[in-house]
Amino acid sequence: MANKLVASIQLMRVKNLGLALIATPLGAAFALLDFESLTNYPEVALATLSVLFFMAAGNALNDLSDVEIDKVAHPSRPLANGSISISEARLLIGLLSFLSVASLAGCLYLMEGSQVYTGAIYALAVILMLTYDHGPRTKEKGLFGNVAISTLVGAVVLYGSSSIEGLNSALCWYVAGVVFFVNLAREIIKDCQDMEADGDFRNTLPMKIGKENSRMVAYVLTLVGIVFLYIPYWQGPFLFGQLLLQTPAIFILMSLNGPMWKGEDYVAATRLRIAMLLGLAGFIITILL
Questions:
Q1: Which residue ranges of the chain lie beneath pLDDT 50?
Q2: What is the CATH architecture of 169-289?
Q3: How far apart, in whole angstroms, are the C-alpha atoms of residue 40 and residue 113?
Q4: Distance between CA 184 and CA 209 in Å, rounded?
């Protein structure tokens, strides 16, 4: 039983769920420009739970669809090494999906209006996830799959905002823009890193235009991410001088041309993730001040 529990946790990739745990309530806080008020919105907690269960189910579904590939490429994964069976994985995915929909239903019930936007974002996420792992399997289509994943990540912020009917907040869209473009750059760099391992399984951007050109595209996307990071301090709601709080994130993003030029894909992908987290931290600190 203990081994099955460990295998289930590995299948859900619990360590990768941290962004959902953070980004959903942050989306609501960015709409409110206040953290203390979050306690008045229990629907935010339910929205966060629905995202956590959704992403856990998606991670498990991804491994289920790739079990034959993983037997060669990632033999240590739970489905590939047989520590959990396919039928058990399907049962787990069904349970997680039910819990996600139930949490969504609770969130919609507590909302006073505009539930349609929250429901629409959730429906979009379901479509993106299913088309990523199943037909037309955008995960195998390189850039389309990168865009799908980055849209899912950015949508988490908007989903949290929508749970308190805060989609009219420009800040939420700026933050979602930062997350989308930086994550898209990271996905492309990861494809550069994994180009040889992907082999015949995927048709990625580096396979089409080469690693150097792909890294150039990734750097341009990084610069677009910086623009979205900058706008809230230029156009509001923040003061321009508070942009100093984003110095760590901006510095890391601007300095990525070195590792990308040298082909240090692992370093670049890691720094992009760190910069994205530092950017979110910068927004948090700005609000708190």
A1: none
A2: Up-down Bundle (1.20)
A3: 16
A4: 16
Rounded CA-CA distance 85/90 in Å is 9
- Quote the CA–CA distance of 209 and 113 in Å, as a whole number: 47
Pick from 100, 98, 86: nearest CA to 20: 100
Query: Of the candidates 263, 150, 267, which has an alpha carbon nearest to the alpha carbon of residue 210?
Result: 263
Topology of domain 1-164, CATH:
Tetracycline Repressor; domain 2 (1.10.357)
Q: Where in the chain is the domain with CATH 1.10.357.140?
A: 1-164
For residue range 233-243, what is the model confidence (pLDDT) as tens digits? 999 899 999 99
Q: How large is the angle between the packed helices 18-32 and 265-288, nearest 10 degrees?
A: 40
Instruction: Residue 195: name the closest of 150, 142, 147 by CA.
Output: 142
Tens of pLDDT, residue by residue over 180-212, are 999 999 999 998 988 776 666 678 888 889 999
The reported pTM is 0.89
What distance lies between CA 123 and its chain's CA centroid? 16
pLDDT of residue 122: 94
Non-local CB neighbours of 63 within 8 Å, separated by 6+ positions: 11, 70, 77, 78, 79, 80, 89
Phi/psi at 163 (5° precision): -65, -20
